[in-house]
Design a protein that fits this description.
The protein is of the alpha/beta class. 37% of the residues lie in helices and 22% in strands. Helix 1 packs across helix 4, helix 8 packs parallel to helix 9 and helix 8 (260-274) crosses helix 11. Belongs to the phosphohexose mutase family. Its cofactor is Mg(2+).
Length: 452
């Protein structure tokens, strides 16, 4: 029997195809998804991985056999699937393994209106039902199976995004876009069509084997080609999308990366101009600059744990207008509280194109501190190392601790967070300080304790 403990994660289903996830399992997940959500209709999309169309079709068979009407929208980005779920008002399933290597695939699921399905919001029940079906066998189809239809929503998705950002007055811009052979190569040409942009495409060919580099712009080595091309072209900016194109990273005209915290602050200011007095969610390892900018623009910042399920829940609870994470996930109330890197990219283009300065000058107001970025260390005893770090800093005057997510230690001129990975024996460190020298000093001290 398949080992679902290795396949079902906190927020999605993800594993190696076909060793851990195959068509038979996908069909069982489709049936279980319908039973748990009690959906009468669902929408299904998939990325460009070779295994994705077959897995999506198998999931649809399972759903139809349990009486649901399934609409397959075919090739799409994950945020396009969220759009479909929100627009059609039905639960959805996206077949992708995001930035993972080619041999992986997975399922991101949501309820109607793009509401997340995670371990505590239905995924545990879906897993239990699949395990039961594996043991007992699949029940007979319902008396009246559902239907299967196909529908293309790419143009509608693009039109909706463009309705949320005013790009009518932007100056002509030259932008290099690295799609990483992922779904950005499918969505960018349609979304950007008609805008005064000279687009220089990098790796737009849909290829789930990722022949050029991993579709994971969080890793600096995967931005090297984009940075070089921005400089060579004299472009105004560069954009890099991950494999399923729900995250977007930004590079300025010098080829330097713009931190997702700075983008969060920039977009927050723009969203607060549309929704005065609104709430903005940020996770606890975004920069100090994010809550500062939110307050300066009349908004209320709310700090939360890392992870899209926490962000989306907090957005729903507070009615927040926007949320951002250090990992370049950006969430919008106007997009069903779901994350969309494409909408964040349109905000950057609008902000840049309606004033004369280069991007580096524009974002300087939002990038105020020195940050380490996320540093991962392999640690067997995560709890013991975290306790040792707390003990080492406990005697320092003016230092505070909180455990909202891992351990955050804060002083007047710096802060750091250490938190364990949910899936690997890792401790993740993020440090920020008012100057580079202080950041490096704290970073090296904490790393010494982590790796002792």
């Amino acid at each position: 029997m398949a080992d679902l403990s290795q396949l079902v994660k906190a927020y999605d289903v993800r594993g190696v195809y076909p060793d851990q996830l195959d068509d038979r399992l996908a069909e069982l997940f489709g049936a279980a998804f319908v039973e748990v959500t009690r959906a009468e209709a669902i929408v299904i999309g998939h990325d460009m991985r070779p295994s994705s169309p077959g897995l999506a079709s198998a999931f649809a068979r399972g759903a139809v056999a349990r009486g649901a009407h399934a609409t397959i929208i075919g090739l799409c980005s994950t945020d396009q699937l969220y759009y479909a779920s929100g627009r059609l008002g039905v639960p959805g399933a996206m077949f992708t393994a995001s930035h993972n290597p080619a041999r992986y695939n997975g399922i991101k699921m949501c309820r109607a209106g793009a509401a997340p399905v995670g371990r505590d919001t239905g995924l545990a029940e879906i897993r239990a039902l699949v395990e039961r079906r594996l043991e007992e066998g699949t029940p007979p189809s319902v008396t009246r199976p559902g239907t299967l239809t196909k529908r293309d929503l790419l143009d509608d998705y693009a039109e909706y995004l463009l309705s949320l950002v005013d790009l009518s007055a932007i100056r002509p811009l030259k932008v290099v876009v690295d799609a990483g052979n992922g779904m950005g190569g499918h969505t960018v040409p349609t979304v950007f069509a008609g805008l005064p942009l000279e687009v220089v495409p990098l790796y737009f060919e849909l290829d789930g084997t990722f022949p050029n580099h991993e579709a994971n712009p969080l890793d600096p080595k995967n931005l090297v080609d984009l940075q070089a091309r921005v400089r060579a072209e004299g472009a105004d900016l560069g954009l890099a999308f991950d494999g399923d194109a729900d995250r977007c990273f930004v590079v300025d005209e010098r080829g330097e990366g713009v931190s997702p915290s700075a983008i969060t602050a920039l977009v927050a200011a723009r969203e607060l101009a549309k929704h005065p007095g609104g709430t903005v969610i940020h996770n606890l390892i975004t920069s100090w600059s994010v809550p500062e900018v939110v307050e300066e623009h009349g908004g209320t910042p709310v700090r939360t744990r890392v992870g899209h399920s926490f962000i989306k829940q907090e957005m729903a609870d507070t009615g927040a207008v926007f949320g951002g994470e250090h990992s370049a996930h950006y969430y919008f109330r106007d997009f069903w509280n779901a994350d969309t890197g494409m909408l964040a990219a349109l905000h950057v283009l609008a902000a840049l194109g309606t004033q004369p300065r280069p991007l580096s000058a524009l974002v300087a107001a939002y990038d105020r501190y020195a940050g380490s970025g996320e540093i991962n260390s392999t640690v067997v005893d995560q709890t013991g190392r975290t306790a040792a770090i707390r003990e080492a800093f406990a005697a320092r005057e003016g230092v505070t601790f909180d455990e909202l997510d891992g351990l955050t230690v804060t002083a007047a001129d710096w802060w750091f967070n250490v938190r364990p990975s949910n899936t690997e024996p890792l401790l993740r460190l993020n440090v920020e300080a008012r100057d580079e020298a202080t950041m490096e000093e704290i970073r090296d001290e904490v790393l010494g304790l982590i790796r002792a």
